[in-house]
Amino acid sequence: MNIVRQELVNWLKAEFRAEQESDFAVLRQVPNTRVIRFLDHYTSLDSAAQEALLEILVEWSSYGLIEPPPNPVWQQYSSAVTLSGIGTGVRYTGVNLLAGLMKDPSHNGLEDFYRKQGVTGLAMILPKELISDLSMIIPVKIPTLRRMVKSAFVKLFSAEISDLGSEILRYEGSLNECRVRVQIRYSARMGRPQLEYSTEVHGKGRVIKTPGLCFESVLGAGFGSWDYLTEENAERSIQLLTELVHWVARLPDRLPKGCCEATAR
């Protein structure tokens, strides 16, 4: 391992451990069922198993911030975070699909549907940071979501907006003395994330444009596929989104020297 990537690995470990020491205060607010599954799995492990998983996460992420990970690194990461035993129930299903299931006349509500599927335990406990009651499973409407994002990004970095087609919008502006570009795909379709975002940062002699770059992906906990956005939590979730974009925009100041230098691109 070269010196630059070793320093990056150490930096990533420190970032993850800082989030862990806060009991994952930021990640628990992310409306993404993949992140919810990851946290439930990670926190169920003993300390030795957590450390082993962290090694895999930071190796994958350290490559991703510099260059595409080698296939063995990608496969190891994918295997470590693909949780075959976790993936259903009200806790791990996006709200678009949950709302559709609630309207299905063939069963008497979500609890009845999942009971018939044999789903019990943690999978049937709502993520309290995102939703407190089954009656709140009302997906935010996409036009409303787009207006909220536009307002937040114009305020945060005077974003100029481009419609790229296929439900994709690009928001571009200046933040932290860098050029920031956020690309978002919106969808109201059942089974798809309501909002999929990634961020690029150009400035201060560095270019950071890893595919799918976001706070969650840097920590190895997930990607920017938000599928648990309700009418009730949308406003605070979009506020969180601005904070996470700002976090990425500060990476040119915070990453170890030599990482992501523009001259290397």
Count of DSSP strands: 6
Instruction: Please provide the ordered H/E string of secondary-structure elements.
Output: HHHHHHHEEEEEHEHH
Major β-sheet annotation:
6 strands, antiparallel
Number of domains: 1
Portion of residues in helices? Answer: 40-55%
What structural class do the secondary elements suggest? alpha+beta
Salient structural properties:
265 residues; alpha+beta; six-stranded antiparallel β-sheet; 10 helices
Structure in words:
The chain has one domain (3-131, 138-264). Strands 1, 2, 3, 4, 5 and 6 form a six-stranded antiparallel β-sheet that branches. Strand 2 (168-175) and strand 3 form a beta hairpin. It starts with a helix and ends in an 11-residue tail after the last helix. Helix content is 44%, strand content 14%. It is built from ten helices and six strands; from the N terminus they run H-H-H-H-H-H-H-E-E-E-E-E-H-E-H-H. Helix 1 (3-21) crosses helix 3 and helix 3 crosses helix 4. It has helices at 3-21, 33-44, 47-64, 71-81, 95-103, 109-116, 142-157, 215-218, 234-249, 251-254; strands at residues 160-165, 168-175, 178-186, 195-203, 206-208, 225-226. The longest helix has 19 residues, at 3-21. The chain is globular, with a radius of gyration of 19 Å. By secondary structure, the chain is an alpha+beta fold.
